[in-house]
Amino acid sequence: MDISETILxxxxxxxxxxxxxxxxxxxxxxxxxxxxxxxxxFQISVVRNADIRRKINDRTxxxxxxxxxxxxxxxASLPGYExxxxxxxxxxxxxxxxxxxxxxxxxLAAENMLLEAxxxxxxSCFLVSPTLALNKEDNHDLAQEAGIPDGHTLQCAIVVxxxxxxxxxxxxxxxxxxxxxxID
Length: 184
Ligand SMILES: Cc1cc2nc3c(=O)[nH]c(=O)nc-3n(C[C@H](O)[C@H](O)[C@H](O)COP(=O)(O)O)c2cc1C
Fold this sequence. Notes:
Strand order of the largest sheet: 1-2-4-3
Number of helices: 7
Radius of gyration: 16 Å
CATH topology: NADH Oxidase
Bound molecules: flavin mononucleotide
Largest sheet: 4 strands, antiparallel
């Protein structure tokens, strides 16, 4: 795929097969995350451990239910809804709590990784929902188990895996976003 084709075919996948991804593919995905535009420290934690993914999934679900946010509560109440969508790989992007450009550094790394995954024929989805759980003091032990360094805040995450046939938690078609104005 050329770069435009890859960008246009990337989409959020919200159902995955219970099948690991090849180690080589994972390494390619992580490497491109380290070559994004950058202005500061961040960490990529790659969570393949099923037990830790399950705990993060369940505590994220719980945090969505308790969030007080109607959209998140509605999503969490859908039958069978899993915030990590059953993906075999969860990649957490964290940065020092006081880092000024943490969201840019991690967001740009995440987008590179989403595009690499797409180019490799894998499904992926950008997530902020795990931040609701893992940035809570109550879940500090789980954040440590997931490899997030002390003093880091989780900024975002991605999941990667083989897409299942039915992407049932995604509604509607993708659309162009943002407005554009040319000033000549
Ligand atoms: C800041 C941000 C947070 C997001 N958080 C989530 C999330 O927690 N869970 C999820 O399923 N999708 C999440 N998404 C994915 C968006 O819903 C998705 O990118 C958007 O609907 C466009 O669809 P597409 O990615 O298929 O083009 C997030 C996207 C952004 C930019």
